[in-house]
Amino acid sequence: LLDAENRIRPPPSIEIKLAKDELVAKARSISEQTDSLYLTKEDKAHSINTFMELVRIKSHTGNEQAIGERLEEILLLLGCRVILKCTNANRECNPAKENSVNIPLNLVVEFPATGKFIDKPGFIINAHMDTIRDSTPEKLRFSTDKKEFYHETQGSFGADDKAGVTVLLEALRFMKENYWDKGYDHRKIVFILTAREEPGPE
C-alpha cells in the first residue's frame, strides 16, 4: 500500500493498534486525576486495560464466540468454574431445537462459596457480551477535555455492554486480590454472560 508520495503505508491493523494505544495512555493519564475510595493507580490502569481489550474484540450480536472465549479465560484465571458453555453442539442450551445453528452462545460460571458461607444463599450477576451489529470500535476516541471515550461519528463503539462487563470483572478481581486470596470467606457468585441481547430488527 502506497500513500500519495509513493511511500509504503503500514497495514491498517497496525495503524489502528497505534491509535488505540494512544487512547489507553490518554485514559490512564485522566484516571490518575480521578479520586476513588477503593482503586489504586494500578487498579485504575488495569480497569482501562480490561475495557480496551474487550472493546477491541468485535462481538456483534450472533457472533460472540471470540469474546466469549476471552471472557472464559479471564474468569478462569480469577478462580471460577464453568457450569454452562453454550455452543451449537450443546443440546443442553437449546433442547427444543437440537439441530439449530443459531443457539445463543451464553456462558455461565460460578465462584463457589467458601468457609462459613458454603450453605448460605449466593449472588447472581449478569451482563451481555454482544454489541449492536453496526458497532465500530475502531472509531473509538478519547476526549481529554471531557475526560471520556466517544465515537468519532456519533455511532457505537461497543461500550454497551463492554463497560458493564469490565466493571463486573474488575470488581471480581478486586475482591479476589484483596479478600479471597487473603483467606476471607465469601458467598457463591454465579456470573451469567448472555449473547444475542442486541438483535435489533431482522
Distinctive features:
two-stranded antiparallel sheet; 202 residues; flat; four-stranded mixed beta sheet
Verbal overview:
With 202 residues, the chain is α+β, with helices and mostly antiparallel strands. It is 34% helix and 15% strand. The protein has four helices and six strands; from the N terminus they run H-H-H-E-E-E-E-E-H-E. Strands 1-2-6-3 form a four-stranded mixed beta sheet, covered by helices on one side. A two-stranded antiparallel sheet has the order 4-5. A hairpin with a 4-residue loop joins strand 4 and strand 5. Helix 2 runs antiparallel to helix 4. The longest helix has 20 residues. The two termini are 37 Å apart. 19% of the residues are buried.
Compact description:
The protein has 202 residues and is of the alpha+beta class. Helix content is 34%, strand content 15%.
